[in-house]
Design a protein that fits this description.
heterodimer, A: alpha/beta, Ubiquitin-like (UB roll), Fumarate Reductase Iron-sulfur Protein, Chain B, domain 2, 2 domains, 6-stranded mixed sheet, two-stranded antiparallel sheet, 10 helices, elongated, B: about 110 residues, mainly alpha, 4 helices, about 0% strand
């Protein structure tokens, strides 16, 4: 490990090991960052880039937990860094930051999210409105009661911000690179439950099999680590259940 | 996906069949039945033959499908040819069990 930090500032200091490198490999480098009473992991990364090493690559946008850009592996665990307080995860004043697992690294802490979103497309993660004759509005569009069981099942997974934390935490993705992963399957389950969607059966066909929901072992790291508190593991179970009855010709 | 359905259905059957199997063993041992007495009961019994044939078939398929998933994830063994091999292994395992059950039936 190489020490490329500025002279230690007076006062409390965080020891921050950051993975630096690219697709061909890399190493951890240690930086010293002033510890503050209130700071997020993203604040720490930003400090390193602005004050110590301007060529550090990382990604963020909203800083308030909406955009899903800033996820990294913090002390061995994938997290959204903008809403992770340092004092919650680094009690001993040491942080280790790595790029998200299960995705190709572009440089330093920035991963290529393309495989992740390609799988959303493969799982038919886009809403496909039902059709009605003569350009009329389909009946399902008139009123969708928020309290209806179908809508509640759809709403349960709809707040996904696409941060990739579940994908990086999933053992099955690590073992089987073709596996669609928790986020894409959560999205598919959301749309399967949307009464206004017209692509239920093709979507169910797209998410079955060895690369789809049937590869899941329900180890539930996705649900455990989702920063939005969603339950992708439950969504996968829902898809399995629906597809099970589907084999016997029942649509439930 | 069919494999997954087979896996689930055989699992349900196995959960029941293993219980019956264990309870039967315990009951037979408690009662102090000899091998000859056990054979007396299984010989010509279509019920026991059917039960153990279905048990062996389920165990063979369930085991092979499970091993297929383990091999794919841990060893990277995937593909149509290997799938055919797993089916063969599953049926072979089931065949051993079924022939044993038939042996008790025809003894």
């Amino acid at each position: 490990m190489q020490d490329r930090s500025e002279p230690a500032p007076t006062g409390a200091v965080l020891q921050v090991d950051v993975w630096r490198g690219d697709a061909s490999g890399g190493e951890l480098r240690r930086y010293q960052v002033p510890a503050r009473e209130n700071q997020t992991v993203l604040d720490v990364v930003t400090h390193i880039q602005r004050e110590i090493e301007p060529d550090l690559a990382y990604r963020f946008a909203c800083r308030v937990g909406m955009c899903g850009s800033c996820a990294m592996v913090v002390n061995g665990r994938a997290r959204w860094t903008c809403r992770t307080h340092v004092k919650k995860v680094a009690a001993d004043g040491v942080l280790e930051l790595r790029p998200l697992a299960n995705l190709p690294v572009i440089r330093d802490l920035a991963t290529d999210m393309a495989p992740f979103f390609d799988k959303w497309a493969r799982a038919r993660g886009t809403f496909q409105p039902k059709d009605a004759p003569d350009g009329a509005v389909p009946a399902e569009f008139h009123v969708v009661p928020p309290s209806s069981p179908k809508r509640q099942a759809a709403d349960a997974g709809i707040e996904c911000i696409g941060c990739g934390v579940c994908y990086a935490s999933c053992d099955i993705v690590a073992w089987n690179p073709d596996y669609l992963g928790p986020a894409a399957l959560n999205r598919a389950w959301t749309l399967v439950n949307d009464v206004r969607d017209g692509a239920r059966q093709p979507r169910l066909d797209a998410v079955k099999g060895d690369a789809g929901c049937h590869a899941c072992h329900s180890t539930q790291s996705c649900t455990e680590r989702c920063p939005k508190g969603l339950d992708p593991s439950g969504a996968v179970a829902g898809l399995k259940r629906t597809l099970f009855w589907n084999v016997f010709g029942w649509d439930r | 996906m069919r494999l997954w359905v087979i896996q689930r259905v055989t699992a349900m059957w196995l959960a029941f069949a293993v219980l019956v199997h264990l309870v039967t063993i315990l009951a037979a041992v408690q009662g102090g039945l000899s091998a000859a007495e056990i054979l007396d009961r299984t010989r010509g019994s279509l019920g026991w033959l059917g039960f153990y044939a279905a048990f062996a078939l389920a165990a063979g398929l369930h085991g092979a499908i499970g091993l297929r998933a383990v091999a794919a994830e841990w060893l990277g063994w995937r593909g149509k040819r290997l799938d055919a091999a797993w089916v063969a292994i599953g049926l072979l395992t089931a065949g051993f069990g079924i022939s044993a059950a038939y042996g008790l039936y025809a003894a």
